Amino acid sequence: MSFDTTEHNRQRNCFDGVESVWLFGYGSLIYKVDFPFLDQRPATIEGWARRFWQGSHDHRGTPDAPGRVVTLIEAPNVCCKGMAYRVSPDVFAHLDVREKNGYLRFVTPMIFADGTREDGLVYIATEDNAAFLGPADDADIARQIAASEGPSGRNRDYLLNLATALRAMGDDDPHVFALESYLR
Ligand code: BEZ
């Protein structure tokens, strides 16, 4: 099952006359930076939790055997740490295709380590998208990740790369680290 959001995202934001935009990354955008950027700063967004609740039919799984990748779920009083990149709007032509399996671009307030704030764009796969899998026990999620592989590689490498990158940023994400422990 998949829902290609490429066209939807293309029409979503008007970048006329805009030289650069902040992009907030909380998943693979933290460790797989295959796009040019003008600046890079750790940042946090408030009221969102990172969860392995989105199916991956195109990168870390297949249509018949989807893997699991992260999306953001609204969660009052929870902060999600990630990496913000200041990018040229041209970059979205590439990222909209890379993240086409159910993700839409939203505007979010971001807080940098020095307390300053900027708005950024963030890709979120909402619960109503066709590839959304939703919650499951950590052990079951870890089992699905361990068994999945797709054109971009093993699902376990996605999880382990993300956990390593978050640890390097000094983040403590109980959901990601619990899944990492099950996997190891
Ligand atoms: C991210 O790393 O911010 C991201 C996660 C899932 C889809 C698109 C982007």
Bound molecules: benzoic acid
What percent of the residues sit in helical stretches (DSSP H or I)?
Answer: 25-40%
Poorly predicted runs: none
The first-level CATH class is given as Alpha Beta
Cα-to-Cα separation, first versus last residue: 29 Å
Radius of gyration: 16 Å
Q: Tell me the overall shape.
A: globular
| Category by helix and strand content | alpha+beta
Number of E-state strands: 7
Overall pLDDT confidence: 93
Percent strand: 35-45%
Give the name of the CATH superfamily: Gamma-glutamyl cyclotransferase-like
Strand neighbour order, sheet with most strands? 1-3-2-4-5
Describe the fold and architecture.
- This is glutathione-specific gamma-glutamylcyclotransferase.
- InterPro entries: ChaC, GGCT-like, GGCT-like_sf.
- GO terms for molecular function: glutathione specific gamma-glutamylcyclotransferase activity; transferase activity.
- The protein has 184 residues and is α+β, with helices and mostly antiparallel strands.
- It has one domain: Gamma-glutamyl cyclotransferase-like (Hypothetical upf0131 protein ytfp, Roll).
- It contains 6 helices and 7 strands.
- The protein has a 5-stranded mixed β-barrel. A two-stranded antiparallel ribbon has the order 6-7.
- α4 (138-147) crosses α6.
- The protein is globular.
- The structure holds benzoic acid.
- Benzoic acid binds at residues 25-30, 70, 99, 103, 123.
